[in-house]
Amino acid sequence: MSPARHLPVHQLPDSALASLSAGAAYCLAIADPHDKARATRALAATWRAGDLPPKGETALQDRPARLPRPELKQPREMPKRKVGASISGRIALLHALSHIELNAINLSLDIMGRFLEIDFPERFYWDWLKVADDEAKHFLLLADRLEAFGGRYGDLPAHDGLWESAVATAQDPLGRLAVVPMVLEARGLDVTPLMIDKLSQIGDQDTVAVLRIIYEDEITHVAAGRRWFEWLAKQRGESDLEGLWQSLVQRYFLGKLKRPFNKPARWEAGMQPSYYEALADWYADIEL
Ligand SMILES: [Fe+2]
Ligand SMILES: [Fe+2]
After folding, report:
1. Is 74 within a domain?
2. Which of 66, 124, 143, 225 is the most exposed place for a label (fewest CB within 10 A)?
3. Which CATH number characterizes residue 233's domain?
4. Considering the domain boundaries, does residue 226 fall inside one?
5. Structure letter (DSSP) for residue 76
6. How far, in Å, is the centroid of ligand 1 from the Cα of 103?
7. What confidence tens digit (pLDDT) does each residue in 12-49 have?
8. Across residues 168-176, what is the average pLDDT?
9. What is the C-alpha to C-alpha distance for residues 14 and 28, in angstroms, rounded to an integer?
10. Whose atoms come closest to the Cα of 222: which ligand?
């Protein structure tokens, strides 16, 4: 374990403090996940202190830096994730969730550094930096739980499906907003309560407490995604927001939209069933 893992604060270099977009690119280029999470939290704190302009010269890489481990596999090569009482099962679950959160850090940084040609209001940057800060917090909380069971992020293989959505939508901000927060993160709202129930039944209250924090935060992430999807669609003269969302999901999302949906949480995020029910019917009828 390197001593840097326990530094409480990541010192951002001046180059990362020229603008929020430059800071996001800096964090994306950090390979160590703990360092990346701490740098992201430091960037959020700096922005809140009020000195950074949102946009500046930004050298964004196509792919975030990463350590050689975990080994990345195709989603279909990954074993099915089950919540069980065994320690190895708990480690596998926490590892998979940590991987999702690390990808979520990268995705929220990427959206702040990539679409600089669009004149988003400053609130856009407030929202995504809050998301990035939350995801960094989630990663660190889960990594701690993983270590409590004797595991460590990188020990197990992980799937590479999450970044594929980012690559597919690198030129299409509406596609990015349609798929990442409004499909992938919304799916998290559907499945997390089941995980919380199962972990409660086996008495793992510490992990339950972490998942409750994540769940509440994720509702606000889906809400931010929906808000900026609708803002940008209207800017572009679109009036059928649900129809546009459905066509973008069909174009860019490689998985299936699956029931059951957590309708109350989706409502809270402002995602009404008119967005997703018809599309779930469509997916139910096709083979992928
Ligand atoms: Fe998260
Ligand atoms: Fe999130």
Report:
1. no
2. 66
3. 1.20.1260
4. yes
5. G
6. 9
7. 999 899 999 999 999 999 999 999 999 999 999 999 99
8. 96
9. 16
10. 2
pLDDT at 212: 98
Q: Which amino acid is at 110?
A: D
Q: From the CA of 211, how far away is ligand 1's center (Å)? A: 9
The helix (H) or strand (E) run that includes residue 136 is helix 122-148
Number of structural domains the chain divides into: 1
In total, the chain counts a number of residues equal to 288
Residues 6+ apart with CB under 8 A from 210: 138, 141, 142, 145
* Domain housing 33: 11-59+84-284
State in Å: Cα 141 to ligand 1 middle.
Answer: 10
Measured at the alpha carbon of residue 28, what is the angle toward residues 215 and 160, in degrees to the nearest 5? 65
Collapse the DSSP code of 73 into the 3-class scheme (helix H, G, I; strand E, B; otherwise coil) and give the result: strand
pLDDT tens-digit readout, 207-259:
999 999 999 999 999 999 999 999 999 999 999 999 999 999 999 998 889 99
CA of 101 to the centre of ligand 1 (A): 5
Question: Nearest ligand, CA of residue 137?
Answer: 1
